[in-house]
Amino acid sequence: MAGAVEAKLAELGLTLPDVVPPLAAYQPAVRSGVYVYTSGQLPMVDGKLAVTGKVGAEVTADEAKELAKTCALNALAAVKSVAGDLDRIARVVKVVGFVASASDFTGQPGVINGASELLGAVLGDKGVHARSAVGVAVLPLDAPVEVEVQVELVDG
């Protein structure tokens, strides 16, 4: 039976995806005490990237914002894989977003808002977090966006 967080996802017309398998030598998420740290999540859907390229060149800022939302969904799936239940999230502590950017693109914060806004819509006050939004030259598989998330779990 789905918990309240997954019910909220459904209410928003979203489905929690399967965990994206690792592309190299790492785990999608690890738990340390009451914290879960996700690896960087790409905007993978059904095992592949729907879009590749640099934001501000081949990819628009609006497209990239939607891709950041997909990254956040993938991060929630990774959290669930080690926490067992998304209702155990006490709060999202930190989000780090990377945007593969054209040399003149400066809208990284607006792109990563896609992830931040999704977490807020799904988790309410528990989704409010600290954040970094960083422009980079290139990401794995030529992905436009990558997002990692740290959450604190309710102990027990």
Your description of this structure?
- The mean pLDDT is 96.
- The protein is an alpha+beta fold and 156 residues long.
- It has a five-stranded mixed beta sheet with strand order 1-2-7-5-6, with helices on one face. It has a two-stranded antiparallel sheet with strand order 3-4.
- Helix 2 crosses helix 3.
- The chain has helices at 4-11, 61-83, 108-123; strands at residues 29-32, 35-38, 44-45, 48-49, 89-100, 130-136, 145-153.
- The relative contact order is 0.24.
- The longest helix has 23 residues, at 61-83.
Question: How are the SSEs placed, and which strands pair?
Answer:
Blueprint: H1 4-11, E1 29-32, E2 35-38, E3 44-45, E4 48-49, H2 61-83, E5 89-100, H3 108-123, E6 130-136, E7 145-153
Parallel strand pairs: 5-6
Antiparallel strand pairs: 1-2, 2-7, 3-4, 5-7
Helix pairs in contact: 2-3
Question: What descriptive keywords fit this protein?
Answer:
globular, 3 helices, 5-stranded mixed β-sheet, alpha+beta
Distance between the termini: 20 Å
Poorly predicted sequence stretches spanning 5 or more consecutive residues: none
Strand proportion: 25-35%
Helix content: 25-40%
Provide the structure class: alpha+beta
Oligomer: single chain
Written as H for each helix and E for each strand, in order along the chain, the element string is: HEEEEHEHEE
Biggest sheet strand order reads 1-2-7-5-6
Radius of gyration: 15 Å
Instruction: Tell me the total number of β-strands.
Output: 7
Largest sheet: 5 strands, mixed
